[in-house]
Amino acid sequence: MTQKERLYFLLDCLIKESGRYPDIKIPGSASAQKRLLRSLMNIRLPQKISADFLKIQDEYLSRAIYDKGITDADSLTPARDKLYIWQGDITTLKCGAIVNAANSGMTGCYYPCHGCIDNAIHTYAGVQLRLECADIMNKQGTPEPPGRAKITNAYNLPCDYVIHTVGPIITGRLTQKECDLLSSCYRSCLELAEENGIRSIAFCCISTGEFHFPNCKAAEIAVSTVTEYLKNSKIERVIFNVFKDEDKEIYTKLLR
Question: I need a surface site. Which of 135, 200, 210, 233 has the fewest CB within 10 A?
Answer without folding.
Answer: 135
